[in-house]
Amino acid sequence: MRLLAWLTGAAEPEASREPDGFLLAADHRHAEEHRLLSAVMREQLAGRAGPVVRLSQTESVRRIAALAPDAQCRVAVAALERELWGAAQRGGQVESTRYVRYVALEVLKSLLRRQLPLSVGDLAGMLHDVRSSRPLYAGAALPLRSLVAQAEPYGAGDSLPAPLRTELARLRDHLMSGDARSEERQAAGRIGALLSGAERVRFDAGERWMDAAVAETQAMPAAERTRWVDLLVHLLAATSPRPSSRWTKEARRLREELGGEAVLARAHAWVAAAAANSHQPVSPANGDFLRGLVWLVADEGTDEAARLLGDLGLALARKIPNIGMRSAKALNASIASLGGMPGMEPLAQLTRLRAKLKAPQAQSLLRDTLEQAARQREMPLADLEELVVPTFGMEEVGVLREPLGEYTAELRITGTDSVELTWVRADGKPQKSVPAALKTTHAEELKELKQAAQEMGKMLPAQRDRLEQLLLAERVLPLAAWRERYLDHPVVGPLARRLVWHFAAGERSALGAWLDGRIVDADDAAIDWLDDATQVRLWHPLGFPADAVRAWRAWLERQERSQPFKQAHREIYVLTDAELATATYSNRFAAHVVRQHQFAALCRARGWRYQLQGGFDFQSTPTLPLPRWGMHAEFWVEPCVGGEASMSESGVSLYAATDQVRFVGDERAAVPLTEVPALVLSEVMRDVDLFVAVSSVGADPLWMDRGQRPEWNQYWQGYAFGDLSASAETRREVLGRLLPRLRIAPRCALDGRFLVVRGDLRTYKIHLGSGNILMEPNGRYLCIVPDRGAAARKAGNVWLPFEGDGTLTLILSKAFLLAADTEITDETIVRQIRAT
């Protein structure tokens, strides 16, 4: 009886109802074998021994074990039929059969552990039945790999009988469709090894990087293509979290047979293409192949391979709307592979990934991988992260010089994320464009220089983020180690030399910064008592006199030094009377409406854990782990649910309402705010202030025009032009010192919460918190949609004491625009200005 009979419920004459409810016809071709299975079930019911069955347990199963091989084949066919029928019935089974529901499956597993002399017809029929019933069997319980192994004695490729080859190929494609489980992917890989030619590999079409790799393989000459198919099949077999020694050994053999360098070059190209397609998810089948590529590239063990896997890791972590991460399995393989590679460059890439990836699972794996590497080297993790920062061959701080022919290439770090490549001729004159002669005579060296520039540009922001984390970590280093790892480090040095540091030796202490080869104080006087006993940490202004803070702000202005992040101008948050009254929570940032997707991105960027919420049964609280202090911070938010305008297509709320900030101990008990260290309180509140300031709907200049959620218009009006937050107050102070230096200074003035700009057509009031604009004399709102790139260019010639405040840059760009309002050409803006 094939599947059709029991799926359609066709009754047969003189049928008996078996213990599991199976209707057995008297003339069934495997009636006797089914009765053997029923006997095992009755013994199970009598003994109530549970579902686990072994061939030595009971009289019935011992009888099956004693059967001749051909009879065991018939039992195996019957057991598969019985299991597939049972899988279709589960969910509606009565209680009396729950002890026998897995009997047929366990018998089948036991029989398939040995090589049975199944006929081509029976085996092809079993493969057909499995394919026809999927996904009726839940949990991938069938012994798929053992079933496929029964075909192996028949040969492989063209020697495989046609019925088996056809059913195996169909089953393989069916197994790999949709979200294949691990057992199914492994069985599909085993099938691939049995097929021939192009049948042996099966990829999911539609992913550009994978389609290109397949097309490249298909274009090879027949003999070469056959050898490459062997490698592709092996890469598709990367279905486990880590490569086995057997897998690695076989990969090396295939690589050498094909020509090691050619294989690695092609593998590098395919991995780079997968990284470049950062907006496309990776299917499970293609993910196995990509994981195999990762293992293959990692086995090379070079710095270039490590940087390639670092780029891939960043690309794979990209979130695809309504889907999630591009490929968690390939990302995990990249992280684990980097942890096992030799040298310091792989660890540098792990540090880079740790600074960029915010998903909790990725962060956990990165932390574990780095901690394991630190243990292997018998050093603290913080030391390891400082030592692995690459130098890219630079011997000077921020500069790489390399002679090429009659020219000298200069690769220079020019900002927090910018690197510039220039050329110096033999006569000492510089030029920015690449000398034409070098494009042919030194093509390879040029390629390496450009690659180095790209890698530096990617590494610098990660190092900036790591440096800023030192503020909360309060890491202290001996002077010599600090010089080596920070001040004089070729890559970190350009960042460290723009910061203020705290020096202490015995009872002496001072704040200092690098200037013209010396460490000086805020009066430019050299600090000459520094010695090997001196301890150094990054300065945080919390707890220092206001005069000291103002002195360093004036020093930055005098030197026109722009810090990579707010340090001297860092906002300080202390407990308010209201917070002392509430004791265990703060309402300072409650009752705001934020754009949830932007809010979530900011949380991830600052190391907070948060997942999007919406109209589904799931709750997430933004949480910042603070393990050093035995607590974590929470910022309570609730999704705003209601109406299509407030929801994405996937059911995620577009907006969220903010509530309390709390600190929670390891025992889930609320920590009184007075017991939270002042530094921790200030830094956490600063993060929360940033989240609200950037993601509030009040900062959206188009909010009123869109007409979304009219009931929030009053909130928008209050935030867009309301009281200033701590970060906005800092912005006001900075603008107060900057305005006299600007060419538009005669047209600008600070007035409370606003920067007032006098144009020829109107006077404009730019709010220092939101950047929104009111026009005088009637207070009409002026909507200017920000172009962040254009804003940066517009204010690009203005020195700023710190980087990272996009709103400050935006305010300055609007001020320059509106001071010359008669020159504005944008019709949308002109129409609003000239409206009466």
The poorly predicted ranges are 1-12, 91-96, 136-140
What class, by secondary structure content?
alpha+beta
Number of helices: 33
The helicity comes to: 40-55%
Rounded to an integer in angstroms, the radius of gyration calculated over CA atoms is 34 Å
Shape: globular
The whole-number mean of residue pLDDT values reads: 86
Sheet of most strands: 5 strands, antiparallel
Strand content range: 5-15%
- Whole-Å distance between the termini? 86 Å
Q: Strand sequence of the main sheet, in spatial order?
A: 9-13-10-11-12
The overall number of domains is: 5
**How many strand segments?**
23
What can you see in these coordinates?
The N terminus is likely disordered. The protein has 33 helices and 23 strands. Strands 9-13-10-11-12 form a five-stranded antiparallel beta sheet. Strands 14, 15, 16, 17 and 18 form a five-stranded antiparallel beta sheet that branches. It has a five-stranded antiparallel beta sheet with strand order 19-20-21-22-23, covered by helices on one side. The protein has 836 residues and is α+β, with helices and mostly antiparallel strands. The chain folds into five domains: 202 residues; 151 residues; 89 residues, no CATH class; 119 residues; 111 residues, no CATH class. Helices cover 47% and strands 12% of the residues. α11 crosses α14 and α18 crosses α19.
